Amino acid sequence: MTLVVIGIGVAAVAAVLGWFAGLARLRPAGASTISGITWALNLAAAVLFVVAGSLVLAGADDGSADAAGPIGASGAQVVQGTLVSTTTLRLDRLSALFLVISFGVAVPVLLSAASRGMVRRPRLAAGIALVLLATAVVVTAGDLFTLLLGWEGLGFAFYLVVGYDRDRRGRAWAAVLTGGFSGFSGAAILLAGSLLFAYSHTLDLAGIAAGSPRLIRDTAYVLFIVGFAVKVGLMPLHIWLPRGYAAAPGPARALLAGSAVNVGFYALWRTLDILGTPPAWLACAVLVVGGLTALLGISHAAVNADLASLVSWSSVENAGLIVTAYGVGLVGAIAHEPALVAAGILAATAQVCAHALGKSLLFVSAAAIEDAYLTTDLDRLRAIARRLPFSGTGLVIGSLTLAGVPLTAGFASEWFILEALMQQFRVDDLPLNLSLAVAGVLVALTIGVATIAFVRLIALTAFGHAGEDIPQERRVYERRLTHRGGIVLLVAGCLGTAVVAPLQVRMIAAGILPITDDVSKAVTGTWILQPVYSGFSALSPSWLWIMIPAYVLLVGILAFALSGRRFLRVRRVPPWRSASPGVINGRGYTSFAFANPMRKVLAAILMTRGELRREEIATGGETGGEQRGPAGVRLGYTIDVVDVVERYLYRPLIPLGMRIVRTAQRLQSGRLDAYIAYMLIALLAILAVVTSMAVNR
Q1: 23, 117, 521, 630: which has the fewest C-beta neighbours closer than 10 Å?
Q2: How confident is the model over 424-464, as pLDDT tens digits?
């Protein structure tokens, strides 16, 4: 626990130094030195958090649910009618697991980020320090006050980081949207905690639900899940996430999407640990909403023409997959099936690991690609693997991981999710059974669409035909050792986790022991995995790493032996070109054209709209194509997609919101006597409530 406290202190110092380095009156040399120290302190804090979590997990075989006692008093409680509150940090096995996951990917991300803008962006380092600090506080919080303190601090840090480049188009709106949803999330958590505190009279998380009636507990359950779902991007509370991630500066995207987002999943796991069995209808809603979120996210990712937005929408998809598996755990708690709880939480946690590694790798690679190409338009990103070998490799491996391809961390985790959803026959309740079946169909469809989405990214972006060349001076970050080191570590994590998948399952089993102790049954023998239930199914990702390369080698040897010298003979043919006459540079597919069938197939989800028009000026580009007609007239077309949730849920509320704002503006008259009157009214209301509570007590 001491290491966690030291890490929090180091991150706090980094935040102060980063802000100080951004002062305009500092000389460039001094600002550069302080900024470099700030990035180093961020890295040191992340390493301390990883070491602290690893030490707890390494000693987690003693059966103790609390590896280190709280610092100070045990949270907040009511003593002789007075609320006594102290900040409490507690590091148990579940907290330690998420420290390792969150900050394990933060270390290589910070290594790569340190190669960018030491002088130009010192206050970005300060914002990142706040993200690290708040993440650690949330994960180790022992009472509701500390949890809310870290949660609101993380929301503020997200607002600062997303709006860092506020002069660029869309950044200010993305920051406001991110901050607004973070505020809504905090309000839901505060309301849920207040309901439980009214009966338990303590803010300590371990005992906050004690004595609460079933209705109050269920209401708090719903509010907690809604509040935490905002951070992970669950539908319909997801609209901030694609904009927020895409608006954040390149190095910060990976930290937000791969590391900090995990506090939402940790909080969901902790809610199950504290509140226990949820209402059946809530589990059904979590399953269905999780499946719909996954499908919506990957549908937009599959057709998006911007690299940063594509990867951001993929975060929505993965949030849906993880929450769906979490829903299986909720069903297990309702059905009193500990093995089903273990199957769901194991699958969800494994997907959290895969997403953290793959998403961090994709965003780190995308940051260097954007610096080199000066764009994230997929139709202008070509031959990345050849021109930027480290970033291109990261783009490929990260895409394969999130697509769930064998030999990557994402394969076993998505297999676990599907296997967990197949256990619906073990549940007798019909609504729960049907919800599991519907979620299984949605997840299976999501995985299929994800394969198409990331094939487009790999085939046409990483290995596409050569486009415009990149000057050597724009490849500076690709040549930095710190950036290469970060890429290598993340690639090793994506591939190595699949090699040692049984060891990963054992680590997860040690971490989620406060929730369930049946996860160890998922490993049978030494290298064989099963979805907790013995004999249901079996898989060995470790052996796949031996057998698949062996079969590829065997096929290559046989092909060479049977073909003789013709095997190495290269046949050259003219490249395929569009059959439409007059198309400019129509060599093969573009990224936009490749996604066109998906826009048609998923038109009901994406609300696809197409328009053909006559123009004298070419329109083309990232949102359409063009064809030259007679007499110099061009026929241009555009194809657009929209978010159905934003279109039909949030946009109709805008006029109502504006009316409320205009009404509220009348209260701000600028008169001091009016403001004093408002304060007096609020004070009288508080006194009335407190007096009534004292009389009732």
Answers
A1: 630
A2: 888 888 899 999 999 999 999 999 999 988 888 888 888 87
Write down the domain spans for the chain: 277-568, 608-641, 672-697
Enter the pTM of the model. Answer: 0.87
Name the residue among 346, 342, 322, 95 with its Cα closest to residue 206: 95
DSSP string of 113-155, one letter each residue: HTTS-TTT-HHHHHHHHHHHHHHHHHHHB-BHHHHHHHHHHHH
pLDDT digits 0-9 by tens, 375-427: 888 888 888 888 888 988 999 999 999 998 999 999 999 999 999 999 888 88
C-beta neighbour count of 665 within 10 angstroms: 9
How many CA within 13 A on the CB side of residue 362? Answer: 32
Strands 624-628 and 634-640: antiparallel
> CB neighbours (10 Å) of residue 571?
5
Structure-block tokens of residue 260? 């900090």
pLDDT of residue 114: 77
Q: Which amino acid is at 183?
A: G
Token digits of residue 16: 């102060």
- Residues facing residue 636 across a β-bridge: 613, 626
Residues 471-480 pLDDT 10s: 666 677 777 8
User: How many other C-beta atoms can be found within 10 angstroms of the C-beta atom of residue 363?
Assistant: 30
- Per the prediction, the chain carries an average pLDDT of 82
- Is residue 100 predicted with pLDDT exceeding 90? yes
Give the integer Cα–Cα distance in Å for 6 and 529.
Answer: 38
Report CA dihedral (321, 322, 325, 327) to the nearest 10 degrees. -100
Characterize the bridge pairing of strands 609-615 and 634-640.
Answer: antiparallel
Supply the pLDDT for residue 561. Answer: 84
Distance CA 508, CA 57 (A): 9
Instruction: Identify the H or E element spanning 528.
Output: strand 528-529
Which of 232, 388, 254 has its CA nearest to residue 318? 232
**Phi/psi of residue 76, nearest 5 degrees:** -105, 145
Residues 6+ apart with CB under 8 A from 312: 241, 242, 243, 244, 245, 246, 253, 257
